[in-house]
Design brief:
The complex is a heterodimer of chains A (333) and B (326). By secondary structure, chain A is an alpha/beta fold. Chain A contains 13 helices and 12 strands. In chain A, strand 7, helix 8 and strand 8 form a beta-alpha-beta unit. Chain A is globular, with a radius of gyration of 21 Å. Chain B has a single domain, classed as P-loop containing nucleotide triphosphate hydrolases (Rossmann fold, 3-Layer(aba) Sandwich). Chain B has 11 helices and 12 strands. In chain B, strand 1 and strand 2 form a beta hairpin. Chain B is globular. The chains are: A alpha/beta (333), B alpha/beta (326). At the A-B interface, helix 8, helix 9, helix 10 and helix 11 of A face helix 6, helix 7, helix 8, helix 9 and helix 10 of B.
Chain lengths: 333, 326
């Protein structure tokens, strides 16, 4: 087995709000091997972004706090590091690309200033050297005319180009791990294809490990090695990409795959839906399966006990009491 | 020209937005949002309209509804030219055509209750009063699977999917024949998106509606539409049946667009050939000469840079605007 760059163990990030304790991430465990691409998939508010921010230690306190668990990066628990030690890792060894490039870039600084800042802080580069390196980075992510465009301001770039700049910025210190939080949600499909290709090229070129967070199962099918499906703050299924798509074991994963209209499938009537809405996390009991009210196959046990992750195949886990019989159940309708 | 069974007919539609500059706000240029677009929508069908952002798909929808006054061209609705109607008559005609918006957060008045929002078209068009008004609202709420007790709530108390249902309910209130759905599911989560698509499908069957379904997600558009029109930079590049579009896309842009859509199945997706488009969409203020797609097209020839291709019928209701297809 390849070396692990990141191991998240039983991570718990809670928010204390008016409604009480909100368990945004509640016992999340997964790992990323060196050079691997891991996809974290789930709907809004399932805790996928919070789990990424926890790795970066960027959870706003108050109201949020990491109450338990371990995050081992290169074998060291980054939750135990001081803020100063963490600064040497954040943006340097672990970098992040955010969802909205328009709001993540500083509108009053030009691209050169924003790119050279990280180079100066983490790599000690100055002046012309930093500028040349910044131009190289822009070339790497495919921005035409980098020498001239480096003096431009964010508003002079399109959304797709801005996201490329974000990726260039994240790569400036040659990170061991790149976390991309919904990197393609606000762009067109053609641009999405370009961006994913950029990220994937960099992974093969520099051996960077990548975590892609997304709500669209289609986006990750081609690139991810493993897929982790989250629901209501917990992992409901995880495993190799091919296993997840060809033999999903959790009813939520099955529903999620079936809810996406597919280009290569016959039209009409093929679309299945998951009825109902995700639960309110602040009111969710610890002793139920969070998915039980939307699940077609829920039994009494699902309403009285929380299923834990069990192994359902080699390297394939699912948190469902009925995962062993789920194939027969779905075939029966 | 009025053909049988065509509910909407758009011919040579142009919508230019002036760019004003200087002290006297003189017109210095035009943004050609729609540049000579013609198509028709048959009674009872769903026509999908896809394209990248800024290609003019929303403007097309709004021009049909006369929310923008088109620069040139005609829009026939049941044989009447909407562009020539006086405001008063247009107001009555509008009852038959409604719009569902993209952003369920911005398109509902935060200070009106859900019931009032849905009921407003009834009052505007003088369709129901008093007891009948309340009953009609109950009826519409039931149609979109919202509970009666939700009528008294305000928009902020609803989730995104529920708000979109209120938006749909409002569009249905005046019993329209034609609805322009402008990216109705783009802002929603996958599972909620599927629920709303199913709802739109069911309503179409029950109420015999005709849709213009605008979206950038090709897989959603193909799923819900009978025919699909592909737009690029203010022009229609290809129109054909949904299945034909996937099996036999002829325009290089359609091919690239299709290949960029991921398929949620790793084995299938890895085997597909990908055509990556380089660069961004050019500015509609200064579109390229000849075919608008020529700077990004992998098959560009000399003629493409000189002459604009016409949208031609190549048989079987398959229209393509490309010099390479004859």
């Amino acid at each position: 087995m390849a070396e692990k760059i990141l191991e998240v163990k039983d991570l718990k990030t809670y928010f204390y709000v008016n409604d009480g304790e909100l368990r945004a991430v509640d016992g999340l465990t997964y790992s990323v091997e060196k050079g691997q691409c891991v996809a974290i998939v789930g709907e809004s508010a399932c805790g996928k972004s919070v789990s990424a921010l926890s790795i970066m230690r960027l959870i706003p306190y108050p109201p949020g706090i990491i109450v338990g668990g371990e995050i081992l990066f290169d074998g060291k628990d980054i939750l135990k590091l001081s803020e100063i030690e963490m600064r040497h890792i954040r943006g340097n060894r672990i970098a992040m690309v955010f969802q909205e490039p328009t709001t993540s870039l500083n509108p009053v600084l030009n691209i050169k200033r924003q790119l050279t800042e990280t180079l100066e802080i983490h790599r000690g580069m100055k002046g012309v050297r930093a500028r040349d390196e910044a131009v190289n980075l822009l070339k790497l992510v495919g921005i035409p005319n980098p020498e001239r465009r480096i003096n431009d301001y964010p508003y002079q770039f399109s959304g797709g180009m801005q996201q490329r700049i974000m990726i260039a910025m994240a790569l400036s210190c040659n990170p061991a791990l790149l976390i991309a939080d919904e990197p393609t949600t606000s762009v067109d499909v053609t641009v999405q294809a370009q961006l994913l290709e950029v990220i994937n090229n960099l992974r093969t070129q520099f051996g960077t490990s990548v975590i892609i967070i997304t709500h669209n199962l289609g986006v990750v099918a081609r690139y991810a090695d493993t897929v982790q499906v989250m629901y209501a703050g917990r992992l409901v299924e995880g495993g190799k990409t091919d296993d997840i798509y060809s033999q999903p074991k959790h009813p939520y994963t099955i529903g999620l795959i079936a809810s996406v209209p597919r280009l290569d499938m016959p039209r009409k009537g093929a679309l299945n839906t998951i009825e109902g809405l995700p639960p309110n996390l602040a009111k969710l009991s610890k002793n139920v399966c969070a998915f039980n009210n939307r699940c077609k196959y829920a039994i009494d046990k699902c309403k009285n006990e929380r299923p834990e992750l069990i192994e359902v195949g080699p390297g394939h886990v699912a948190a469902c009491f009925r995962s062993a019989e789920i194939k027969q159940l779905t075939e029966a309708g | 020209m009025v053909s049988d069974g065509h509910l909407v007919e758009v011919s040579s539609l142009k919508m230019y937005f002036p760019v004003l500059a200087g002290l006297f706000r003189r017109k210095v240029a035009n943004v050609k949002a729609i540049d000579n677009v013609s198509f028709y929508i048959k009674n009872g069908e769903t026509l999908g309209l896809v394209g990248e952002s800024g290609c003019g798909k929303t403007t097309t929808g709004r021009c049909i509804l006369q929310l923008y006054k088109p620069t040139a061209g005609t829009v026939l609705f049941e044989g009447t030219d909407l562009t020539k109607l006086p405001p008063n008559t247009l107001r009555h005609a509008r009852r038959n055509m409604q719009l569902i918006f993209q952003d369920p957060y911005a398109s509902l008045d935060p200070r009106q209750t859900a019931g009032d929002i849905v009921g407003e078209p009834l009052l505007i068009h003088n369709l129901a009063h008093g007891k009948a008004y309340r009953e009609r609202i109950d009826e519409i709420f039931a149609m979109v699977d919202l509970e009666k007790r939700m009528e008294e709530r305000y928009p902020h108390e609803f989730s995104g999917g529920q708000r979109q249902r209120i938006g749909i309910a409002r569009a249905l209130a005046a019993e329209p024949k034609f609805i322009v759905c402008d990216e109705p599911v783009s802002a929603l989560d996958v599972s909620i998106q599927a629920q709303v698509i199913r709802l739109l499908e069911r309503l179409k069957e029950e109420l015999h509606l005709t849709y213009l379904f605008i979206a950038h997600d090709l897989s959603v558009v193909r799923y819900i539409s009978d025919r699909v029109a592909v737009m690029y930079l203010g022009k229609i590049m290809e129109i054909t049946g949904s299945d034909e579009l996937y099996k036999n896309p002829l325009h290089p842009y359609t091919q690239a667009l299709l290949s960029a859509v991921p398929i949620p199945n790793p084995t299938v997706d890895r085997q597909r050939k990908r055509i990556l488009l380089s660069g961004d969409v050019p500015s509609p203020m200064n579109p390229p000469k000849g075919c608008h797609f020529n700077p990004r097209c992998r098959l560009t020839r000399d003629i493409c840079k000189e002459q604009e291709p016409e949208l031609k019928d190549i048989g079987g209701e398959h229209f393509v605007a490309c010099h390479l297809i004859s």
